[in-house]
Amino acid sequence: MADSDDVRRLALALPQVTEIDSDGFDFRVANKGFVWSYPERLPGKPRVIRTDVAVLYVGDEAEKQALLLGEPDLFFTTPSYDGLPLVMLRLPPVGVGRLTELITDAWRMRAPDELQSESAGDLSA
Q1: Residue 29 in contact with residue 111, Cβ under 8 Å?
Q2: In a domain, 120, yes or no
Q3: Which residue, among 23, 48, 22, 37, has the nearest Cα to 91 in the 3D structure?
Q4: Are 24 and 45 in contact (CB under 8 A)?
Q5: Is residue 43 part of a domain?
Q6: In the chain, fewer beta carbons within 10 Å around the N or the C end?
Q7: pTM to 2 decimals?
Q8: The domain containing residue 62 runs over which residues?
């Protein structure tokens, strides 16, 4: 079972990550977001920052669909994210090992190549 504290700890352990001030969590590398709290928008209601759901950068539509179809208990999307390489991850049912993998993969997709090359030995595969 993972939570927002796990997201924060794992994201900040990656090279050159900055946390943006927000009502939840919001992590970037090279000014590119890779994991943040889900800003839920329901019709007729104010936006709510959900710290029990992480938005993850996944790279492309194929990977997004594979996650959504392969692990529907963990991942979901909404129409406002259609066409974007982002998925929402329910934190309570995910294990810390799987969360580590997902956050590291999101970081790798957003980090500059030279940073990845410098950090290759520091990151587990």
Answers
A1: yes
A2: no
A3: 37
A4: no
A5: yes
A6: C
A7: 0.89
A8: 4-115
Give me the CATH number covering residue 49.
Answer: 3.90.1150.30
pLDDT single digits (tens) 26-57: 999 999 999 999 999 888 999 999 999 999 99
CB neighbour list of residue 5: distance below 8 Å, 6 or more residues apart: none
Strand partners, 37: 54
- Would you state the structure tokens that stand for residue 1, as one six-digit string? 């079972």
Q: Is the Cα torsion angle 90, 123, 19, 79 positive or negative in sign?
A: negative
Tokens of 92: 């309570």
Evaluate whether 92 touches 2 at the Cβ level (below 8 Å).
yes
Per-residue pLDDT tens over the stretch 50-109 = 999 999 999 899 999 999 999 999 999 999 899 999 999 999 999 999 999 999 999 999
At a CB cut-off of 8 Å and minimum separation 6, what does 15 contact?
29, 111, 115, 118, 119, 122
Domain count of the chain?
1
Structure tokens at 29: 């590398």
